[in-house]
Amino acid sequence: MVVKGITKRWLLNSLGVILILIVALVFSLSYAIQNYIYYGIQQAINGRAGELTNVFSDYGKRSSQDFLTAARNYVENFPNKESMELMVFNSEGHIITTSIGFAPDQSQPMPDYQQALADANGYGTWTGRLTSGEKVMAVTRVIHNDAGSVVGGVRYVVSLEEADKQIGMVVGILILAGVVILLFISTSSYYFMKSILTPIKEIGATARRIAQGDFKARIEKSNDDEIGQLCDTINDMAVELGAAEKMKNDFISSVSHELRTPLTAIKGWAETMQGGGMDDETFDKGMSVIIRESERLSGIVEELLDFSRMQSGRMTLTMDKIDILAELGEAVYMFSERAKSEHKYLLYEEPRMLSPVLGDINRLRQVFVNILDNALKYTGEGGTISVVASEENGYIRVAISDNGCGIPPEHLPNVKKKFYKANQTVRGSGIGLALADEIMRLHSGSLEIESHENVGTVVTIRIPAFLEKAPDAAQDTERISE
Fold first, then answer.
1. pLDDT digits (tens, 9 = 90+) for 172-193
2. Whole-angstrom Cα distance, residue 143 to residue 11?
3. Residue 129, exposed/middle/buried by CB under 10 A (0-12, 13-18, 19+)?
4. CA-based nearest residue to 303, from 342, 341, 258, 343
5. What membrane topology does the annotation report for this chain (predicted)?
6. What's the whole-number mean pLDDT along residues 208-214?
7. How far is the C-alpha of 324 from the C-alpha of 359, rounded, in Å?
C-alpha cells in the first residue's frame, strides 16, 4: 500500500509504535500481576506446609500407622478448609483421606507428589489443571522416618479460579486503560495534525496562486511558531516576487523605449536621406545622427550582453597594470561637451599622481562612464558634478558627487539591484549600477552610494592600488656601500 498523506504516515509510524508499546505494557503488567498473585498464594501454602515440621517432629521413630492417625487429626482440625484442600498419603502414595470428606480421586495428576519424593527436603509444587478442568496450585510435603523411608505425606491444593478471575479483571482494566490512552492520544494527535495540515494546505494553495502569477496572494498567520514563520517567509517571498516582476516589466518597458528611440532616429534620417535632394549640410547632419544613435544603440546592446554575462557568472576580466588616473581623465573629458551643452558644470580635481591599479581597463572605464552618465542625468540645469580622486590606505578612491535630485531614503538600499530604477521618468535600463557594482566586486573593490533627497548624491569607488615590491634590504645595503 502506497502511503502518501502525512496523516497516514503518522498512523502507520507513530500510532503503530504507540499501539505496540501499549500492548507490550499490558502484557508485561498482566504477567507481573499474575506472578505476584500466584506467588502470594504459593507463599500462603508454603506457610501451612511448614507447620508439618512441628506437627510431625517426633514421628521419625514411629510407624506409618502412627503418622496416618496423626495426619487425620491434623486434617480434621485444619482451620483453612474453606480456602484449600488437604490430602493425606500413605507410605505407598495412595490418598487415604481428604479435607472435603469425599472419596479421594486417585486418577488426578499429582506431579508435585513425584517431585516431593525426589526432593531431598521432601517438597514439591505444581500448578496445572485437574481432570475436571479446574486450575489449581498444589504443594506436597513428604515425611520420612529416621531410616529415610517414606511414612506418608500431606498435599495442599488451592483452586486458582478466583485468582484468575481477579487477574482477568485487572487485565481487563489495563486493556481498557490502554484503549482510553490510545483514544486520547489519537484524538489529541488528530487535532494536532489538523492544526498543522490545515495551514499547510492553505500554504500550498497560496503558493500555487503565487506560482501562477498572483503576487498579491497572502497567507493569514494563525500561530507564532515554525508554521507561522513559514507563512511570513512565503508572504515575504510574494512581496519580493511582486517587486521583481514589477521591476522586470519596468525594465522591459524601459529597454524597449531605449531601443526604440535610436532606432526611430536612424530610420527617420535613413528614409530622409533615401529620398535624396538634400544639401551637404543636411546630409552630414543626418549621418552624424545615424552614427551617434547607432553608437548609443550598440552601447545599450553591449550593456545587456554584460548583464547576461553577469547573471550567468561568465563575466571575465582582462587584468593588467593600468594608469587609473588616465582612464578617469578620459571619461571626464568624454562628458565635458555634454555637460556644457546641458548647461551643467563638470569639475575635476586631477591629482598629480596616483598609484597604478591591477584591473580591466575597459570595465573600469565602463564604471566611470556609468556613474558620470547617471550624475548628469539626475542633475538639473545649472547643477554641478564634481570628480575627486585620491589615494588612501592602499586604495585608490574616486568620489563623483552632484547636487541633483538625490535618491529618496526608501529607494537607496535598492538602487544597486538589477532592474531597479528609483526614478521612472529618466531614461535608462536600471542595470547600469548593478553592472558597475559587480565589476568593482570582481576588482576586489567597492562601490558605495550616499544620497539625500533634493540635496545630491555621492558615489565613492574604491579599488586596491597596485604596489610594486620593495627591493631587498641586502640590495639596498650594496647600493649604499658602492
1. 999 999 889 888 888 887 787 7
2. 63
3. exposed
4. 258
5. Multi-pass membrane protein
6. 87
7. 9
Alpha helices for 144-218 (secondary structure H): 161-211
Grid cell, residue 285, equals 547632419
Q: Concatenated DSSP letters for 250-312?
A: HHHHHHHHHHHHHHHHHHHHHHHHHH----HHHHHHHHHHHHHHHHHHHHHHHHHHHHHHHHH
Tell whether pTM > 0.70: no
Residue closest to 53 by CA, chosen among 148, 142, 167 = 142
Cα(341)–Cα(349) distance, integer angstroms: 21
Which domains are assigned to the chain?
1-49+164-212 (no CATH), 58-159 (3.30.450.20), 226-312 (1.10.287.130), 320-464 (3.30.565.10)
For the beta carbon of residue 460, count every other beta carbon within 10 angstroms. Answer: 16
Catalogue the long-range contacts made by 443-447 (C-beta closer than 8 Å, 24 or more residues apart): 443/317, 443/357, 443/359, 443/360, 443/363, 443/364, 445/395, 447/367, 447/416
Q: How far apart are CA 313 and CA 205, in angstroms?
A: 35
| CA–CA separation, 216 and 222 (whole Å) | 19
Tens digit of each residue's pLDDT (9 = 90 or more) over 437-480:
888 988 999 999 999 988 999 999 999 998 765 445 444 434 43
3-class secondary-structure state, position 98: strand
The answer to whether 74 touches 81, Cβ cutoff 8 Å, is: no
> Any bridge partners for residue 447, and if so which?
461
Nearest to 332 by CA among 290, 294, 388: 388
Q: Are 172 and 16 in contact (CB under 8 A)?
A: no
> DSSP assignment of 334-401, as one string?
HHHHHHHHTT-EEEEE--S----EEE-HHHHHHHHHHHHHHHHHTS-TT-EEEEEEEEETTEEEEEEE
Q: What is residue 450's predicted lDDT score, i.e. its pLDDT?
A: 92
3-state secondary structure of 126: strand
> Rounded distance, CA 433 to CA 404, Å?
17
Alpha-carbon distances, residue 452 vs 33, 403, 404, 411 (angstroms)? 84, 10, 10, 11
The amino acid that residue 39 corresponds to is Y
Q: Which strand (E) or helix (H) includes residue 92?
A: none
Instruction: Give the per-residue pLDDT at 321.
Output: 92
Distances (CA, A) of 107 to 94, 95, 375: 11, 11, 119
Contacts of 130 (CB under 8 A, 6+ apart): 108, 109, 136
Residues in the chain: 482
